[in-house]
Structures are given as structure tokens and as C-alpha cells.
Amino acid sequence: MAAAIILLFGGLWEGLVYLGLPLPAGGTALHEDHGQLMVLGFLGTLIALERAVALGAAWGYLAPAAAGAGGLAVMAGLPGSLGEMLIGIGGATLLAIFIAVHRIQPSLHNVVLAAGAACWIVAAALWLAGWSVSRLVPWLVGFLVLTIAGERLELSRMTGTSWRARMLFVGAMTVFAAGLLAALAAGPAEAVPGEPVPAGIRITGAGLILLAAWLARYDIARRTIRGRGVTRYMAAALLSGYVWLAVAGGLWAGIGQMADGPAYDAQLHAVFLGFVMSMIFAHAPVIVPSVLGRPLPFRPLMYIPLALLQASLMLRLIGGDWAGSTSAWQWGGSLNEVAVLLFLALAVTLAARSRRVARAAGRRRGAGDRGRPPRRAVRRADARSAAGPLTPGE
Amino acid sequence: MALLGGQPSPEMLRDLLCEVIDPEIGINIVDLGLVYDVRLSADGAAEIVMTLTTPGCPLGGYIEDAIHDTLWGTPGLTGLNVQIVWEPPWDPELMMSDWAKRQLGWR
Q: Which of A56, A62, A194, A358 is spaced 20 to 30 Å from B65 by Cα?
């Protein structure tokens, strides 16, 4: 967890340097590998940690440990590709976690999650092989998009998704995967101006649009937006993320290549900040308690960083990348980071406060009665046996 | 919610579990069909047998904590154990209540 936070700050710092702000650069690795460090180092560590906690097996923690240590090694510029290899091991262990889950209970959504982990491994392998970020970035996107899509598919079961809906999902994912493979087949060379552009990025973009359409139609957020409190907040963050996913798909499909410049900035940050960061803002109230064991109570204040993220990203993409205003781009990009830091600060404050409140309540209750019943270890039964009949007073 | 000789009943605990809500869906774990069994021993220790929608569900810790927080302080309850099982697998069609299905737009 600490490693993930350090990687986040390193990545954010380099983001500001990339935006052209007058700051000391954070070293070659931090600059060249900003994308890999943010996606595989920071988010990879967090996602792997979340999955390791869910599986509850000690070996599963190798995934976040290796990813976090690998990210720090890359950031520190350790020689011999040690960091890249550790990150690769993290991805492979995450894949093993999904295989373990499959053996407990096989499902389509788990296969999608496993495919996401496979994308992580491919991205790490291409990185080790020396491919440039712009060539391996579809696989970074593949890791995050498939991870999120798998989770949403799982939750969509609650809305009674039909066989047809599931097949439409498989169709969208097939287009997306075909695009990734086509981009891979095009090789590590950068696009040459004037030459025909390989179709991989366009197909991948079409896959993203199809997925966004599927989520807009079948995801539970469309129903839960009518709920209250945290449920409504999560739905709002999810739905804004889906809009950005569609925007990203449009940019990928329309531009068709990944080359430095404003278009590239928009292609990457629509998906990584617009889609992925909105997903993180959405899930924080449930993931933080699961991973850290501390409650993160919902407060309407959480809408502020969410709205700032959306507004600043629009400023960056429309004012900066599209209209060509450098100051809009820099303001938008810096405010993107302010939104992330604001959310982080809010989450830390709320989690710390709720802990104090819980302690105080514990003292009050403890004075009057026998307090909380002793908590025995929660058993994650490996036994596959069905629960027995209701036996009151046994 | 009458107490049986100073002890809570499994039905009462099940009613209390209706306050444990999946935050993302806004529906409680009982109506979602995740609670398979509520057992109570003679000395007042409860065992909640439940499942999660999937074995890789990251919400497990959150739900378990919410159960402890909800049942904590129930008069007569001397212990609490949450057991997560994967058999039978959760099946929304069969296990979700009609009310929950209506809330989530099942047709």
C-alpha cells in the first residue's frame, strides 16, 4: 500500500513535469515510464492487493508485493530490468489468483478478469523487450478495461441480464481483443507519416465504443442512479466514466494511431483519467474498507473531486488538446491532479475520523454492557459442502 | 422480535441482517439472497452462513465488517462467526427476492 502511494506521487509529479510546469524532473525512469508506473505500478499494485485480500490465500499477496517493489525499482532506476521483471511476476501471480478463483467457482466474468491480467503480462513483456510506451499502451488499457469490464459483467447479473446481453458483451470484448492483437502484429515500429496506418488501434477503439454502449445499456448504474447516498454517488461516477470510455473509443477509432502530440494526450487521458479514475472514485467507498479494514463513510463532499475531475479533463481535452491552448492544457492537467489529491486527502480524513468515532462508540458501549461479541476469525470455507439446515438453538 | 429466554432468535438476527446493505446496489444482503443460514448455539453464539456473488468479490471484508457492526450489541448474543461458503453458488434468478428484482428492473 505504501509502495502504491509513493508510485502515485511519483507519477503525479512526473505528470506535472510532462505538462511543462517549472519543476525539477524526477529522473529518466520516472519521465519515460510515467504510463507503466501509473498503470502497472500504482493501479496494478492496488488491483492485485484487492484480489489477494478477496482470495485470502497468503501466496496471493506476492502479486501486489512484486508489483509494488517492481514499480519502486523502476522509479529508483535500478539496473538490469529488475523492476520490469518484478512487475511481470506481479501480473503472472494475479493471473494465478484468477485461476484459483476459477477452480472454486468458474464464471465468464472471471475469465474476463483473467484476460485483463494476461494483458498486464503482455504489457510487461513488451516493456522488457524495449517497445515504446505508445506501442504498448493498448495493453495497459487492456489490463484496466478488462478488469473493470469483468467486474461490471459480474454485477450485471443482479439486473437479470439475458443470454443475449451476455453474448453482446462477448462480442464487444472480441472486437476489443482483436484490435489489441492487430496492434501487436503491427510490431514495435512507430507509425511512419504518409504510410498506411495499421488497423489495430481503430479496431480497439471500436471495441471500447461497443463496451461503453453495453455498459450504458446493461450496467446496474442506470438503475442505482435513482438510489440515495453512496449508491447514487457511485452510479454518478460510473456513468461519467462510461461517457469518457465512449469518448476514448471515438478518439482511438477516429485517429487510428498513437503518436506524440495533442491527439495522443487526449487518447490516453480520456481512458486513463476519464474512465479509470472515475471508476476509482466510484469504488473507493467500498474498496478502502475491504483492503485497509477501515470504514470510509460516504459524504456528499465526495462529489467535489469527482466534478473537478470531469471539468478539468474537459478543459484539458477541449481547450488544450483540441483548441490548442497551452494554458488550458496545463490548467486542465494540473487540476486533474488537484482532483486526485483532493479525493485522496478527503478519503484519508474521513477514514481517520470514522475510526476515532468508532473507538469512542466502543468505549461508550463497553461501559454499559459487555460490548462487542468476541470476533472469531472469519472462516473462508474451502469446504464445498452446502450449508446445513436451519438449526436454531443447536 | 421477542427474545427466547434472553436469547435472540435466528429470525430476529435475520431481520437485523436486512440492515446490511451492499453499498453499490443499495439492497440488503438478505434480499439479495446471500444469507444461506443463521444458526444459534445454546450459549447464544451465532453463526451466519453466507455466500458472496463471486469468490473473487472484493466486498467480502466490507460485508463481514458490516455484519459485525450490525449485530454487535444484540442482547443475549455471546459470539458471532461469519462463514463464507461457495456451494451452492449464488444464483440471482433463484435467490434474489421479488422485491430486490423489482428494484433492479427485472422484467
A: A62
- Residue A299's identity, in one-letter code, is R
Distance from the Cα of residue A83 to its chain's centroid: 20
C-alpha to C-alpha distance for A86 and A1, rounded to whole angstroms: 16
**Residue B76 touches chain A, beta carbons under 8 Å:** no
The 3-state DSSP class for residue B36 equals strand
Q: Could you tell me which residues come within 8 angstroms of residue A64 by beta carbon, excluding any fewer than 6 positions away?
A: A4, A45, A46, A48, A49, A52, A90
Q: Minimal CA–CA distance to A61: which of A26, A7, A97?
A: A97
Which of B39, B84, B92 is facing A394, going by the closest CB pair? B39
CA neighbor of A63 nearest in space, from A97, A38, A34, A39: A97
Burial of A22 (0-12, 13-18, 19+ CB in 10 A): exposed
Query: CA-to-CA distance for A223 and A237, rounded, in angstroms?
Result: 13
Q: Is the ipTM of this complex over 0.90?
A: no
Task: Give dist(CA A45, CA A75) in Å, integer.
Answer: 14
- Non-local CB neighbours of A161 within 8 Å, separated by 6+ positions: A218
**Which of B37, B79, B84 faces A376 most closely, judged by CB atoms?**
B79
Joined together, the cell numbers standing for residue A370 give 459487555
Using a CB-CB cut-off of 8 Å, the residues of chain B touching A290 are 58-62
Q: How far apart are CA A185 and CA B76, in angstroms?
A: 66
What's this model's pTM, rounded to 2 decimal places? Answer: 0.85
pLDDT confidence band for A363 (50 / 70 / 90)? low
Retrieve residue A352's grid coordinates.
481517520
pLDDT tens by residue, B81-104: 999 999 999 999 999 999 999 988
The owner of cell 489490463 is A143
d(CA A369, CA A374): 13
The one-letter amino acid code at A302 reads M
**Kind and range of the H or E run holding B27:** strand B27-28
Average pLDDT over residues A254-264: 84
Which H helix or E strand runs over B49? strand B45-50
Q: pLDDT digit string (tens) for A172-202?
A: 999 999 999 998 988 877 766 666 667 889 9
E strand or H helix at B79: strand B79-84
A69/A389 Cα distance (integer angstroms): 47
Computed over its alpha carbons, how large is the radius of gyration of chain B?
14
User: What are the cell numbers at A213?
Assistant: 454502449
Q: Does the distance separating the beta carbons of B9 and A387 come in below 8 Å?
A: no
What values do phi and psi take at A174, rounded to 5?
-65, -45
**B35-40 vs B45-50, strand pairing mode:** antiparallel
